[in-house]
Design goal:
Length: about 725
């Protein structure tokens, strides 16, 4: 068996459980009798060979041991052990939030089951059992998208101790041949991989609901099925936009297809997540393969994208990325350079905006947005290299009016003028399509009015709002709120002394006009019921006195930084910083990691660190038109401290064979490559007074500040980085 092959991680979001057993009724351990014939059937399944369906000769003497394995399994009181090691503590209604089972309790349960069910003769030795338990603990502690290879499962296990695989008898001084040793290793590996894949994993899947959470990021949590069922029932009752559907009624609804929904815990309650990318809907045309709802929405996404580019004012004050925030702030500051007046801030938040959108109003807005009778859908691909010389392919399908019959070279010339496609190869797919307005509106009605989701075995129709997991939901939300802003706040959008920005459903008003700020706040709190929007007063924040609105939070006078969508904005200078408050705790940093240690973990770590650095490398933090030199240097320093924390978190996750003290040159070289690449990209925005030596010095000093406290792990690396700083 290939040591680099991955072990199955299909343990998440399992539905239902057996109230008496911890394994499904159809599992081989449940259906196989505790007899010699049953043991042979079990062993044939575990050690199955492509070339032969018969049990290998070297395993036939171990049939009795597997009979004991079956008997122990069938007599094991799984539910008693589950209640003993992972008790249900209280009820969901009492606690207000679903309570997870601590990791050490899940570990204790698995340990108790392994000791009780699996005979020592199968383990071969106490060393092997201890090694497998240790590897199982690592399996349980993997984060979301974490992988474990066959080699990781077998780490520490002595093949020679496993006597259930009998080698042919030889003379006392004769060693087994290489082929026999390989065969034995393969059979032993098959058993322990089966034990992890097909025994431990189904036990966990049937006993617990396993999922990530909003506060825990990528960390995996275990919940007792009973507690989760109560929490799920309470969450469904709070989803007033969902109407239960009978099976026979679901077929009568005109819909683009079914979408599975799952719930993930948040600080209080559960949040619904709809997967409209799941390919579970049968296709009615060639090729006859399942398609997702998002695939069916591709043409609509292209058309709405085209109309958005043609008429940017349709989205109102919406900003889609940091680039748009930068251009709005730099333009606003440029117009009011040297203005000594006070800035007034109003930060708002709409409650459950996606779920409260008026479907009829949304369709009415879309009727106005889609202007052409027919659209052409072009298809092309861009190929570009990234920092580690890997090729990145991006498939695009822009829409245009049917009259746009330009040849591809003329089209490419126009695209390259509008977008930055330097050092890119653009390939025409030669596969164009068209879609008419009536078909677009039909599909939009099906998507908005006929959105069917399935939670467990129950189907629901979304009678209010739009699907949050849809690829077009962001632009639909922006079109909806943009229409409201143009109808209700046209004076705010046109006022030269004001800057209104909205990231999805979180608006922020910056204005010199205090009366306009108060009027905007009052009007928003009393919005037209036709839009069905409601402001979450608890998340509102202003930096001025409002005696009439005592429930609105006010920024303390001693604080001049206001938080908005992951950014910190200075209420005096309108400078921008990134909010790193959630990355100060190392536990939160580790929970955010998605790290594959099965193949080239060192290179994967460096790639991940570079990608994380690039997310904070933007002109809104580094450009002198927005920030002063001092603030830019602060932003650089904070981003480098963020890098250092992630670096330390990654190193703590590396296998024992790949540690800093074993190959410090690799880590120093990796850091050099990252900061050099970072500076090449950042130098486009940085002021000339911030030199390369300054950036490099800030970087190495930030890393040293963190790792200096951990001299045992980083002793050699500290000395090498000190040398780098002194040489600058």
């Amino acid at each position: 068996m290939d040591g680099s092959a991955l072990v199955s991680r299909q343990i998440y979001h399992a539905v239902g459980s057996d109230k008496k057993r911890c394994l499904p009724k159809t599992h081989v351990m449940e259906t196989t009798p505790s007899s010699s014939s049953g043991a042979i059937s079990l062993m044939t399944l575990i050690f199955q060979d492509k070339d032969s369906k018969r049990l290998a000769k070297c395993l036939r003497d171990s049939v009795d041991v597997f009979v004991v394995f079956l008997r122990r399994h069938k007599s094991c009181p799984f539910k008693v052990l589950l209640d003993k090691y992972c008790p249900v503590d209280g009820k969901y209604e009492d606690t207000g939030s679903v309570k997870n089972v601590p990791y050490f309790q899940v570990k204790s349960l698995c340990l108790a089951i392994c000791k009780r069910v699996i005979p020592l003769k199968i383990w071969g030795s106490q060393v092997n059992r201890t090694a497998f338990i240790s590897n199982m603990e690592r399996y349980l502690s993997l984060r979301k998208k974490g992988n474990m290879s066959v080699k990781n499962v077998m780490q520490g296990i002595r093949i020679s101790d496993c006597d259930f695989v009998k080698l042919p008898k030889r003379a006392h001084d004769c060693r087994a041949s290489q082929s026999e040793s390989n065969k034995r290793q393969g059979l032993v590996t098959k058993f322990f991989v089966w034990l992890m894949n097909s025994y431990i994993a189904p036990l966990l899947r049937n006993a617990f609901t396993i999922t990530e959470s909003i506060p825990g990021r990528n960390r995996v949590f275990f919940y007792r099925k009973e507690m989760w069922a109560d929490a799920q029932a309470a969450a469904v009752q709070d989803m007033h936009s969902l109407t239960p559907l009978l099976e026979e009624d679901a077929g009568t609804v005109e819909s683009l297809g079914l979408a599975p929904m799952r719930l993930i815990p948040k600080t209080c309650g559960l949040r619904p997540i709809v997967n409209l990318g799941a390919k579970i809907n049968p296709s009615d045309s060639f090729p006859y393969q399942p398609r997702s709802v998002n695939q069916l929405l591709s043409n609509i996404e292209s058309v709405l994208g085209y109309e958005r580019q043609r008429s940017p004012d349709l989205l109102g004050a919406a900003v889609m990325d940091y680039g748009e925030i930068f251009h709005k702030i730099s333009s606003f500051k440029g117009m009011h350079k040297g203005d000594g007046r006070c800035l007034h801030f109003v930060r708002l938040d709409f409650t459950k905006c996606y779920e409260r959108i008026n479907q009829d109003k949304m369709l009415e807005i879309l009727e106005q947005v889609i202007k052409e009778d027919e659209y052409t859908i072009r298809k092309y691909c861009t190929v570009k290299t990234i920092f580690n010389d890997n090729l990145v392919f991006k498939h695009r399908q822009p829409a245009a009016p049917a009259e746009d019959n330009r040849y591809f070279p003329a089209f490419v010339e126009d695209v390259t003028r509008k977008r930055k496609l330097n050092n890119s190869l653009i390939v025409d797919k030669m596969n164009y399509g068209s879609i008419c307005r009536d078909e677009l509106m039909r599909d939009l009605v099906k998507h908005i009015k006929g959105n069917i989701v399935q939670l467990s075995s129950q189907k629901y129709l979304q009678s209010c709002g739009i699907a949050q997991g849809s690829k077009i939901s962001p632009i639909l939300c922006n079109l909806y709120l943009g229409h409201m802003e143009r109808e209700v706040f046209p004076d705010v959008l046109c006022d030269k002394d004001s800057l209104l920005m909205r990231w999805m459903d979180d608006p922020l008003l910056v204005t010199y006009d205090l009366e306009l700020a108060k009027r905007y706040l009052t009007t928003t709190l009393e919005l037209d019921p036709a839009y069905n929007c409601e402001v979450n007063v608890e998340k509102c924040l202003v930096n001025f006195d409002i005696p009439a609105q005592k429930e609105i939070n006010q920024l303390p006078e001693c604080d001049c930084w206001i938080f908005w969508c992951g950014l910190l904005m200075n209420t005096v200078t309108l400078e921008v910083k990134y909010d790193y408050s959630k990355t100060q705790d190392m536990k939160d940093v580790k929970n955010s990691l998605t790290f594959d240690v099965t193949k080239t973990p060192g290179m994967k770590m460096m790639e991940n660190l570079m990608a994380a650095m690039q997310t904070k490398l933007h002109q809104v933090f580094l450009h002198p038109t927005v920030n002063s030199i001092r603030t830019v240097e602060t932003n650089l320093q904070e981003s480098f401290m963020y890098f250092a924390r992630r670096f330390d978190a990654f190193v703590s996750e590396l296998p024992p064979r790949i540690q800093v003290h074993q190959n410090p040159d690799f880590f120093v070289k990796g850091m050099e490559n990252i900061i050099q690449r970072y500076y090449v990209l950042a130098s486009r925005f940085l002021d000339r007074t911030i030199t390369q030596e300054k950036v490099f010095s800030l970087f190495y000093q930030a890393v040293l500040e963190l790792i200096r406290r951990k001299s045992v792990r980083y002793g050699v690396l500290i000395d090498m980085l000190k040398g780098k700083v002194n040489s600058l």
